[in-house]
User: Fold these one by one.
Assistant:
Number 1:
Amino acid sequence: MELSVVPRLAELLKRSPLDMKSVVSDAVMRLGVDRILGEVRKTLFGLDDVIKDILSGVMVGRHVLVVGPVGIGKTTLVESIAETLGLGDPPYIEVACHSHMTATELTGDIDIAVALQSGLDHPLAFVPGPLVMAHGKFLILDEINRLNPYSQAALLQALQEHYIYIRGFRIRTDFILLATSNPVEYSGVYELSEALADRLKVVELDYPEKEVLKFVLQWKSKELVSHLALSVPSLFVDVMANLFAILSRDVKLEVGPSIRSAIYSLSTAITRALLEKREPSIADLKREVVNNMGSVIRGTFSSDREKAEYLAKKFDEAILMSRKSGEQWKR
Amino acid sequence: MEKVIASLFLRVAEILRDDPRVLYPGSLRSYIYAVSDVTARLSLGVDDPENVIVRIGVQNLVNSVKAAVPHDEKKRIIEDAIRKALHEERRAPQKDRYYGSHGLADRPNQHKVSHHERVRAHKSSRSGEIVRGVLYAGDSGFANLATLINAVVGPMAHIRQKLEALYTVREELHKAGLISREEVEYPSLRLDVSKRSVVAEQASTIKVSTHSTSNMPISIVSVDHYRPGSPLSAVDLLRTSANVSRKNMLGRPIEDRDIIINVYGSADVSDIVVALDVSGSMKEYSRGMSKIGISKKAIRGFIEYLAATGDRLSLILFNYRADILWTLFPVYRYKREMVELLRYIYAGGGTNIGEALAKSADVFKASRAVQKHLILITDGRTINADVAVNRARTLFRTGVTISAISIGQGSDDDLLKRIVRHGSGTFVKISSIFDLERALKIGASRRYM
């Protein structure tokens, strides 16, 4: 890495306040809503309303929290919005939160040894953290609910005071926070502190409608197998969408299926058949569903075997549903 | 435009404030952002303004509004409030449009009074709503006392708040027939200090231990003089009596500082979590007393026993789901509250040990003690056995030792032994439920390893 790109402490201390809501609003107005929607549609589909909800929030300087189940594109969504608005280079700073993250990891710290030897203005004397680097941009905190209370406090200070303190140095930082999180009932997560939660607008992302889902599955799985000159049978997609509908409605499950696992079930079923030099069959798909989704869904199963049997049973139900709806049945 | 929306949200705030289910109608910040956000969103183009206003309003307010109901229910309350305000807005003639902007301050005093009265009148029906809402919440299973209380205050709330919450739902518990009045009024147990030395003797218990247990005394790091609230059991008798006799000789009155209190070393102070099975099978009788009754009595004895130390105790109740009845508190200080809460525990529902382990991990997260110990009391088989073993393993990795006490014939001893093996603790199988109190102490003695 070029040392010159690392900001020096002296420059950071001279930072002036930025009005983030007008910065973002200007960017939205410059691009136009339709163009932003168009850009995001290149990677995600059927989320126009959600995108507008997020945009309206960031335009007034509100920090946004996107909540939804695993694997339905929360992170991709906020990344592509931040990418499209392009507030700087890079357009956003992303942090994958984990429970052992410390406040210093977020703010950055002064390396005493370097500072003593070469002075505070040596590029390596101060290693800035994401909270400092996100000035004038978006800060994406992935899975913010995994952030422990200590780091939440550091984040809160940056949000409310717009300053962070590093060993007595006060550095200005203005950014818009885009966070993602799983719903509250998930296990292994921290609750957001009240003061932090109060500063976040909650946009919920839910499982898509069946038609939208079918389109997404067809599109994404095709993308994955297109370099092998393969295609995805529409029957597969239909069965998969039915299975998805059945599973996401099932109250027995604590954690439902993810779109990611559905896409990979489809594409691996096809490549598996390719390896054995035959046409993909519905039995391939069944096996791959068990392989791919087994680790995603959680529920009151006493063993992995029971879970596999459950998935297989639901898969058969999905096939029946597709048959009834009159999809062409071919082996 | 913005003015209309502002008056709309002022009305929303009023509606929420008057709603008996809402504890706190939301921060000013969230309302300010809701207004500007809705304005911005409408400018981005919408097909269905009403739904958009409702949705954006909920998105901005949901984190700030506090209500004594589950999350989804809270969202619906806010949604209904915004819809109601919208309809009023639509019906109201133009001149009344902005009444809301000074309405909060200008409403006649009488309104406030009636509001308070209404809240008071609602209080009983509201606690009833909570009990009914939580108890019979679909097929998620039978709610235990901890679930019920946590619907009113947070799971990590102070034990005194929990007690207050208990009192608001107490009448309903009686009404629902979960706990009888006589049961709550049982005569207080005498603290039998001599029992504390019984730890090692076990007449009818079979003990399988992965490590040998020893019963080392707790180390005293310093002494302090008596302050109100100091545990009497920590009085250093030798020094105190020396002081008293000296004062007697000098003919001076005895003061607080003559009474010397031992201060126990924090390294030997341990955090103990007891996870108690409150599934339906605990209602069965064993020698004329229900298993749950005996467990409560035993835990009560255990609390008395711990009150002599500096240990902190937390109690988790689990049936199909687990909830924290109270999180870690020093026993000697909060003994009274603990005993009081204990009396209202009732049984019902399924068994899920995995949940109990997950919840205890939550409790231990806040613990800094060197010794962390979990005692699992269960009488039944569990669903999700694999999950339970895995969680036990992760729990042990964070420095928690796990002991299990199994009661009665129906228990899955193999599973409990597996859990204990991963948790490096003691497994105690008690043939008679009356041995539970002693078993608890054996389980706890494991912490002096």
Number 2:
Amino acid sequence: MLLRSGTAFGGLLLGGCDRLSRSPTFEGILASADSLTYRVQRLLVGNALAREFTPAELSPVFRSNGTDDPDTDEYNALRENGFVDWRLMIGGLVARPLALSLAQLRALPQRTQITRHDCVEGWSAIGKWSGVPLGTVLDLAQPSPAARFIVLYCADELEEGDGGYYESIDLIDAYHPQTLLAYALNDKPLAVGNGAPLRLRVERQLGYKHAKYLMRVEAVADLKVIGRGKGGYWEDRGYAWYAGI
Amino acid sequence: MIPGTMAATAIKRHTLPTRLLHWVNALCVFLVLMSGLNIFNADPRLYWGQFGAITDKALLTIGSPGIPGWATLPTWRDLATARHWHFFLAWVLIFSSALYLLISLFGGHVRRDLLPARSEIAPSHIAHDLWNHLRLRFPTGEAARRYNVLQKLSYLGVIFLLAPLILATGLTMSPGFDAACPWLLTLFGGRQSARTLHFGAAMLVALFIVVHLTMVVLAGPLNEIRSMITGRYVLPAAKSE
């Protein structure tokens, strides 16, 4: 009798939780914990650096995840030419919109760091990244005081016809010294599987924030008008915007 | 009344904060375990060290289809929703556990009811209690007024060892928190070691729940459950030999 009522209670609980999981209002209540996490972490973490590792600690293989080849006509044309015609467009709420080639980015002061990449799924890989700090590029473009977020637009579509991949970060992460526009992984130019020619490194957040195949960087005041309004491809599909946890 | 028998003695067993927080925690722990299993299914492998991915050697791999849906929250594969549940409940548990600790440490619950007396932790005493439990002979009468030493040690273990370990290893998995407390990575030997320890400690909590519920059923479920709801507990009478 007891076992049966226990099972019945369990079934009721599970069914109830499943129903709650499907309710947008309840999802909103659960997601309110995200903003608490964001605020507490910003307070506790401040501008602290992510741990950097030694070359001996590198993962033997740095796996590719998500899109491993954008395979669009536009991207294929750029790739065939060794990305010499590729330009990173920097615009939005900035005083000086820019179009930077890979050579111009490489000519800027570079930073190299060995850091851990954490996927939301649970795995981690350690890689050596070289690139130009995003803050350096933003200083050239001079965002206006109205800018609150940096949005990164990518060349890939994870699902065809579902809108391109994009991501966004706040200005604290955008100007963090380890936040890079990275063009090299483990001393080699970024492979297509890892986001050639340029990807974001935002070391204190999970992998889906590290947008690959960068095409455009925009300073904006509001994320609601972009995509489905949640600040990123996976965010629009239910994942948290702040992925420091 | 039959001559020679005594009326059952009813005592007040648990204080209101203990009872209230027991049920808040019971619900949250169930759900946080189940949402954790859903998260685990996103990469059902455990590694050791600073890194670990499908291209690396795993300590443990749970083959497809992973943990069955009836044990996960939600019952279908949904990493985003499971993470929302998990972190929301983690916050609730942080607040409810802090409240419990505050009340229990300063209110005397830990000292009075949970800390075993010196005589109780003598190996012979523990062995004796263990033997009685294995024969399903539980304390009766006056001896049932207080937790026995096996109860005390398992409650203390969950509260002061497993819960802090789960919290600390959980925080070590956060790339943001790692930047603030890199010593956590040193302490646990890396994010992937912390993930494995987090899973292991959670499984020990699940084991505790199984044993705990079994003991409730064996010790008299109505009396036990009532004592955790209203506080009224009837001391089990000694069985006549």
Number 3:
Amino acid sequence: MKRRLPLLIVLITGIFGAVAFFVPYPAIRAADEIMRNDVQRIIAAFSLVLGVGSIVQHHMLKIQRRAQYYSYSYITIIALIITAIIGVFGGIDVTRPGILPTRFGSFSIHIQTLYSNMMVPLAATMFSLLAFFMASAAYRAFRARNLEATLLLLAAFIVMLGAVPFGRLIHHQLPAFAEWILAVPNTASKRGILFGVELGIFATSLKIILGIERGWLGGGK
Amino acid sequence: MTLSTDPWIWIAAILTLAIFSFLYRENPFYRFAEHLYVGIANGYAITFYWHRILVPSLFDRVGSSSTPLSTKIWLIAIAIIGALYFTRFIPRISWLVRIPIAIVLGYASGASIPRAVSGEIIRQMKATIITRASFANWQSGLWAVIILIGVIATISYFFFSTERRGLLKPLSYAGIIFIMIGFGASFGYTVMARISLFIGRLQFLLGDWLGFIK
């Protein structure tokens, strides 16, 4: 029951998901739309419980065990709770305020203000840091040892130089050449890889529907 | 130089500097900003799912007098199935979490099969096949031939079922060449995207915060 019922549900919903694409009858189309717009969306929204629950559990355990840097876990939990309270009760649209006041004179603590002034700077800076680490990793990985590594290095350099005004100063055709690399050899290799990826998705989906792949059931009986 | 007087600009600038401090070494300022980001991002995700999915798709419709009773019962049933995710934290009945996962995973797997075949594989094959229209001018014709050779060569590189002899040997080697150019181009493109983010942060610090640039 604990394993067979979920496997049966996967089989039924999987067959329905695949067949609905080909069946033109309005009743099947309507059921497919309900499945996509209502069932999937609402159930997927609840799945956030797993993610948020896991992160809270992880940080609570760190605090309980007084693990290294455990005091920072308080920051995560407090920031999560405060942001969620402001967002859920203060409303998400600036024009439609919620039950929690988010404006005190000219100072706002609205969720969109938090998003623009805390989340965006943190995320953008975090990702911009990767430019430095990628450059140092590239220095070690891309040394032109053979033809293949040299081609990789050259393609990366041409694409980078073609995207900045300095590239045009080196040669006026460099941006066009960078565009050509992206549009022709890059498309050819990506398309070849994409065939493999899509066949992989096809095979894995089939394995999940038929109950051959059961990793998603997790441990236990 | 005109320093910003907006407290939010100061908060954003201090958080930006805290993250950049990682370039020197891992330090308490970076750890603070990192943990704050995780907390805010999760809090925002809760807000987003609540206001953009649960309220309009579930609560508003269940509470509306214009929604038929059968739809209301159906929506409540979906919500109960979704709420089974909470059982993950109750060991005795934690297996029930498999039911909402099975519905989402099953349908998504099933729906991805025709999408993968007709939406991706067949469409990409159509785009690769050379037709008379490909030779509208000599350039587009030549590029179409290079793309066709590149796709066949890349696929042949991943063909491991037989020993690389005869035609397969040079073809798979040509595949490596195409793959390396593709990876190099992707790498260059990604680095440029990160650098443009970095320039954006510098513009914010020097412009919005310190007022050095307008």
